């Protein structure tokens, strides 16, 4: 999809923690040998850089951890795994979108992806694209902010 290069150095600076995370990635977003049984919240809590992180920073870190925990040793998601994540972790944004042409186009693009796998950047673009067209986003925009 996009193909931008991620900085291993930048990633290493943010992987300080006490769960045995290596600061030297084998590939840009390759999975670490963290047991799948460690919850995302515990993984987030182990990241020193996020101890005082904003909600937005923690949200992006959560996406990165879910991606990493689900990706293969090369740090990529197979199409089936990506679709499964959309159904299990992103269903409130995708429910009821099946009849929308833009939704169908996005999933067709996923099916036609040349590499048959998504890197983190491609996955983020897919998530953001699905978010923009979702009914849930429209509901979020309509929520009244109370002071």
Features of this protein?
mainly alpha, flat, calcium ion binding, about 150 residues, transition metal ion binding, calcium-dependent protein binding, EF-hand-dom_pair, 2 strands, disordered N terminus, two-stranded antiparallel ribbon, about 50% helix
Explain the overall architecture.
The protein has 147 residues and is mainly α. Helix content is 52%, strand content 3%. It is built from eight helices and two strands. It has helices at residues 8-13, 40-45, 55-70, 79-89, 91-94, 101-112, 120-133, 135-142; strands at 77-78, 117-118. It has a two-stranded antiparallel ribbon with strand order 1-2. The longest helix has 16 residues, at 55-70. The radius of gyration is 16 Å and the shape is flat. It comes from Neovison vison (American mink). This is Sentan, cilia apical structure protein. Residues 56-95 form the S100/CaBP-9k-type calcium binding subdomain domain.
What is the secondary structure topology, with strand pairs?
Layout (H helix, E strand, L loop, with lengths): L7 H6 L26 H6 L9 H16 L6 E2 H11 L1 H4 L6 H12 L4 E2 L1 H14 L1 H8 L5
Antiparallel strand pairs: 1-2
């Amino acid at each position: 999809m996009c193909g931008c290069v991620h900085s291993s150095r930048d990633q290493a600076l943010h992987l300080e923690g006490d769960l045995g995370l290596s600061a030297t990635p084998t590939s840009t977003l390759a999975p670490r040998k963290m047991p799948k049984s460690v919850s995302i919240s515990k993984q987030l809590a182990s990241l020193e850089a996020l101890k005082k992180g904003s909600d937005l920073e923690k949200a992006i870190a959560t996406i990165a951890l879910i991606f990493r925990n689900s990706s293969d040793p090369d740090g990529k998601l197979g199409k089936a795994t990506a679709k499964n994540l959309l159904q299990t972790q992103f269903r409130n944004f995708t429910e009821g979108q099946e009849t929308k042409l833009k939704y169908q186009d996005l999933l067709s693009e996923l099916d036609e992806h040349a590499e048959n796998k998504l890197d983190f950047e491609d996955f983020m673009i897919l998530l953001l694209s699905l978010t923009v067209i979702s009914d849930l986003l429209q509901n979020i925009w309509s929520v009244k902010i109370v002071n």
